[in-house]
Amino acid sequence: MAKKATIVWTKVDEAPALATYSLLPIIRAFTKNAGVKIELRDISLGGRVLAAWGKAPDDLAYLGELVWKPEANIMKLPNISASIPQLVDAIKELQSKGYDIPDFPEDPKTEEEKKIREVYAKCLGSVVNPVLRQGNSDRRIAKPVKDYARKVAEKRNWMKPVPENSKSYVAHMKGGDFYENEKSVTLKKDTKIRYEFVDNNGNVTVMKEIELGEGDVVDATYMNRKKLREFYSEVIEDAKYNDILFSLHVKATMMKISDPVMFGDAIRVYFKELFEEFGKELEEIGFNPNNGLVDLEKKLSKLPEEKQEAIKKKIEEIYAKQPRLYMVDSDKGITNLHRPNDVIIDASIPAVIKNGIQGWGPSGEVDDCVITVPDRSYATMYREIVDDIKLNGQFDPKTIGSVANVGLMAMKAEEYGSHDKTFFPPADGIMRVVDEDGNVLIEHEVNAGDIYRSCVTKKIAIEDWVKLAVNRAKESGEPIVFWLDAYRAHDRELIKKVNEELKKYDLSGIEWHIMAPPEAMKYTLKRFRQGLNTIAVTGNVLRDYLTDLFPIIEVGTSARSLSIVPLINGGGVFETGAGGSAPKHVQQFVKEGHLRWDSLGEYLAFVESLKLAYKQAGDEKIKILAETLSEAVSKYLENDRTPKRKVGELDTRGSHFYLALYWAEALSNQTEDKELAERFAPIAKALRENEEKILEEIRATEGSPKDIGGYYLPDDEKAEAAMRPSKTFNEIIDSI
Predict the structure, then answer these.
(1) Which of 10, 9, 6 is nearest to 72 (CA)?
(2) What's the per-residue H, E or C state across 23-76?
(3) N or C: where does the chain have the smaller number of CB atoms within 10 Å of the terminal CB?
(4) How many angstroms separate the CA atoms of 622 and 355, rounded?
(5) Is 596 helix (H, G, I), strand (E, B) or coil?
(6) The pTM of the whole model exceeds 0.90
(7) Which of 214-228, 558-572, 613-627 has the lowest mean pLDDT?
(8) Residue 134: helix, strand or coil by DSSP?
(9) Residues 509, 443: contact at Cβ < 8 Å?
């Protein structure tokens, strides 16, 4: 029997999950007679919660094992990196569907509550990516996407001009931050390390122990909370003085332990008078600023009505005194400080840049803003791009080059692997990293409540990262720039390793540089404005930030990036772009039956997934499916069949129809495989002849509310009926 390749398609959340109900039947129909099997695995927030309580299979754990096998071939769609408010909402929905799962204990007191909290902690933040990303990241804009963006840039005009004398700027700490306090070591041998807290009386508490290998890089750092709050005070005062918006940009989803606290401290400082006057009452109702102002809204009703009114009045007084806040949704009064997961730095700063370095204010006005990024590690590169735009004007998508990325992310590399090694010292004292022989590797003097975090970058991941960068430079002929800062402890260790690794390769004809983020940004932007391409070779966090920043400037969205993760043991994960505005898409669909999620990211990733499947199974039909899908994607863009915003216009389902039509036509026109051509010729003919009828059947269902049976766990039957409304189209696809 011929060998088959299995592609795992991930069931996720929000708009990409809805789109899957329409797209996956098409994908399955087109590939079922080639050597490919497509399997659906649930890594959605709802699915993860149910798996945590044994109410559903643990598909994430299954995939965690699969990524270490050479046969791994995974289509990874964007999933929710849950904040606490989202997790609480998901739990409520699942309970309402009859699942016997406990409430989320926000302030666990008993042992049982602490255990429940531990179970739910495994569903918070970005728990999926560290499990699946057992390889480094190769992310870029595919040529057809870049060509299409240049063609429509004039009409779409997503980069707004920058007003003269813009007062917007990036603010960051000058001391006391993670950058300043970082210390780092490369381990000389395999060892077990432990994290210890030593109080001022010499009592030692072991916080955690882990086993590591020779050549692994360990670093540790902390943020001084007192200095963080002083910094916020200064920035808020400056925003008030300059009459610009105050905006905070952190990563409270991926950095799920440290960044919500930084977010909460901004609330504590901005609303200082509220805490001074009503501290006792706020504590009584269990308000946790780390969960945002939405937490206060939810809990305020626990107080007597007159107290509620007094607190609301105080909040209004504070708004009148303090600088105006950057708004997530000014119509609904949702501010930058509303929910920690609402303003995610990698998507929120590009949104400001795109908008002429301006944000939306409370009354729906557009204004300059202070872009507040507390830690200096990456704030300096954002400062560099904002200064460049103020000096040289807005970028023109018709003429700019492209910035691809090779990202060090395998095996929970760098800061994104710090969740389980982030601690809040219980008192003033010393945090230290000690090896199994009792040698103190790293030591910090800390204050009670400071944010201490440590991360590990594995030797094997670093070596694979350098190899991937060299390969990309050879394939593309473009310069590679390692964004590493010799003044930062962790980067110093990486620079040594990079220089060592590069000696293993023939670098003739390759242009390569090592530069600190601000210099790297300056160098890259100069080329970018000249229409030249550059490959940024970065650590994990910068990978995340730059692979949103540049694609948003270049093509209007990062959801159109091609993201390939060649796994260390030979398989592949194919990521389908970001899902930044996915919640709004779902809200629109439920309200008026129109979905505008663009599945282009899925199409591009699936081409690459099929290429790997061809290598795995050796079936020529798979190779032809990949080539013809690539042709179909070019035609899809050429003819502008991407979903539009309004009811009655082409939506996601109509877009999927066109993808199927162009793919069937490409298959019927190819001459390499007669059987494939004959099978798809009548399909292409039927789709072409029924084009208007199919689009009309889809349009007829728009303009009215849609019941999909749930947000975090939609009802499959209802969602599929809503996403496959054309009987004619379904019959043609199901007949393949």
Answers:
(1) 6
(2) HHHHHHHHHCCCCEEEEEEECCHHHHHHHHCCCCCCHHHHHHHHCCCCCCEEEE
(3) N
(4) 43
(5) coil
(6) no
(7) 558-572
(8) coil
(9) no
